[in-house]
């Protein structure tokens, strides 16, 4: 099923006056796609999901599912399955009865026969890999098993659209990873369209075809992992999606000159002169030995990368470099040579020929090559 959200706004009036929870949100999810909604707490992710499910009304705008306007349709009329983090199972019902609940309560004319329901429950128990737990009660299940039962319950009425709101939130990291991989494979196997709300950006980037970043009730950016990494629309998107470092400076005559000392200038083709901010991931940097440079201190490391604290004077930043390159780092003096960066001005990405400026490598940078008039401009 495809979903189209058009200029959706939702405002509520409370004791402190009117509050806008969603502001002109538009989103297209083609049939079969797996989309993740991410953003800080209060960004409006749950509000958007609930509006799609039909649980909360919109103030303006519309939602189309498979080209059909949803206005006025109750959740059960939308062919949507949803699972919420705290969507508890009925404790007094067995797993099988929990799964069949949505079918058992259908009006007689629409309800499948008892044999059909039993077969369906058995199929769903197989699908969630708990074939022998149909007669168990929820208290006997682990958190991961309960989430799988909640999912089976959501799937019982064969929805074309699955809405998941932080469904892995209460699970430990190992189970969480296993369940999300499994949900992704289920999505493929059943030909679902899935929208997942998560505050875990890594989870979103790992599991979804497309990630929608929300902030303050608006969509800030919508793209696949590569687009978001290479062309983050704003510094917020870059920061939200992973550890990042930010260097304020100036673009002058085709070079970026950081305001801070110990950051090597780098060339930026076809970018307009003026103030700019360069943002990098902590590994997008190399080290240039420099007697008067910043001092380094190793603070940890993993996956073969050393984490290094670089003292820039007014502040320290943490970078990552391959362990193999770091025989004895503490106290070593260096300059930082940025190897690639995204440049922002006035809070927006500067679109040059290539938004990620691959800076000249440390080996290529020689102060003698930087025109004197550029250095004096700093
Ligand atoms: N019915 C309501 N009345 C008033 N304010 C509400 C209502 N529902 C949600 N909000 C507020 O709207 C904002 C967005 O809430 P929402 O739950 O959609 O955010 P979220 O991005 O899902 O956050 P989280 O990650 O914490 O779940 C929050 O500030 C929340 O307090």
Automatic annotation (TrEMBL):
Domain of life: Bacteria
ABC transporter domain segment(s): 3-241
Coiled coil residues, start to end: none
Single biological process term from Gene Ontology: quaternary ammonium group transport
Gene Ontology molecular-function annotations: ATP binding; ATP hydrolysis activity
Pfam family of the protein (one): ABC_tran
Gene3D superfamilies noted in UniProt: P-loop containing nucleotide triphosphate hydrolases
InterPro entries: AAA+_ATPase, ABC_SmlMolc_Importer, ABC_transporter-like_ATP-bd, ABC_transporter-like_CS, P-loop_NTPase
Name by which UniProt lists this protein: Sulfate/thiosulfate import ATP-binding protein CysA
Source organism (scientific name): Acetobacter oeni
Upper taxonomic lineage: Bacteria, Pseudomonadati, Pseudomonadota, Alphaproteobacteria, Acetobacterales
């Amino acid at each position: 099923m495809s979903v189209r959200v058009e200029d959706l706004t939702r405002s509520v009036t409370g004791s402190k006056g009117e509050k806008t929870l969603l502001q002109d949100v538009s989103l297209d999810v083609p049939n079969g796609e797996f989309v993740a909604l991410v953003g800080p707490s209060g960004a409006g992710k749950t509000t958007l999901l609930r509006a799609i499910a039909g649980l909360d009304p919109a103030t303006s705008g519309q939602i189309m599912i498979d080209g059909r306007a949803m206005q006025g349709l109750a959740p059960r009329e939308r062919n949507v399955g949803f699972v919420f983090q705290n969507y508890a199972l009925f404790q007094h019902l067995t797993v099988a009865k929990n799964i069949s609940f949505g079918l058992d309560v259908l009006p007689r004319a629409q309800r499948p026969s008892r044999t059909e329901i039993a077969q369906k429950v058995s199929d769903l128990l197989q699908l969630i890999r708990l074939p022998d737990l149909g007669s168990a009660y929820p208290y006997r299940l682990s958190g991961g098993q309960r989430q799988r039962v909640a999912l089976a319950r959501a799937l019982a009425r064969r929805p074309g659209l699955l809405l998941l709101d932080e469904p892995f939130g209460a699970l430990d990291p190992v189970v969480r990873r296993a369940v999300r991989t499994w949900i992704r494979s289920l999505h493929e196997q059943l030909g679902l369209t899935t929208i997942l709300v998560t505050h875990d950006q890594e989870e979103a980037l790992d599991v979804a075809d497309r990630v929608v970043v929300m902030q303050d009730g608006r969509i800030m950016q919508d793209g696949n992992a590569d687009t978001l990494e290479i062309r983050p629309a704003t510094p917020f998107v870059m920061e939200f999606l992973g550890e990042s470092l930010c260097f304020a400076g100036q673009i002058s005559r085709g070079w970026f000159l950081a305001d801070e000392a110990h950051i090597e200038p780098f060339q930026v083709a076809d970018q307009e002169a003026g103030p700019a901010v360069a943002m990098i991931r902590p590994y997008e940097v190399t080290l240039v030995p420099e007697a008067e440079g910043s001092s380094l201190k190793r603070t940890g490391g993993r996956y073969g990368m050393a984490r290094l604290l670089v003292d820039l004077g007014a502040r320290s930043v943490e970078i990552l470099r391959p362990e193999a390159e770091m025989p004895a780092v503490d106290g070593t003096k260096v300059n930082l040579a940025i190897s690639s960066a995204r440049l922002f001005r006035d809070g927006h990405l500067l679109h040059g020929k290539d938004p990620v400026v691959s800076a000249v490598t440390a080996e290529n940078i020689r102060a003698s090559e930087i025109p004197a008039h550029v250095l004096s401009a700093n």
